[in-house]
C-alpha cells in the first residue's frame, strides 16, 4: 500500500524519528476493529444512517487524538 504524504508532514515525521510502519499498521488495525464494532452495533439497532456517520466520525477523531498523543508522548 502506498499513501501520499505532503513534504512538510514528511519532514515533521522524519524529525520525530518514529518507525511509522508499525505505528500506522496499529492505527489501521484499531480503526478496522472500531468500524467493525460500529457495523455490529448498527446492524442490531434502529440508528439512522446520519447518526451512524456521526458516531463513526467521533470514533475516528478519538482514534486520531490517541494516536497523536502516543506519537508525541503527550499523556495529558
TrEMBL record:
Domain of life: Archaea
Descriptive protein name: Antitoxin
Source organism (scientific name): Archaeoglobus fulgidus
Taxonomic lineage from the root: Archaea, Methanobacteriati, Methanobacteriota, Archaeoglobi, Archaeoglobales
Amino acid at each position: 500500500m502506498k499513501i501520499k504524504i505532503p513534504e512538510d508532514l514528511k519532514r515533521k515525521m522524519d524529525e520525530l524519528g518514529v518507525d511509522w510502519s508499525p505505528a500506522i499498521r496499529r492505527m489501521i488495525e484499531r480503526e478496522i476493529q472500531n468500524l467493525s464494532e460500529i457495523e455490529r452495533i448498527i446492524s442490531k439497532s434502529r440508528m439512522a444512517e446520519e447518526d451512524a456517520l456521526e458516531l463513526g466520525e467521533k470514533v475516528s477523531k478519538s482514534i486520531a487524538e490517541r494516536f497523536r498523543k502516543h506519537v508525541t508522548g503527550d499523556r495529558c
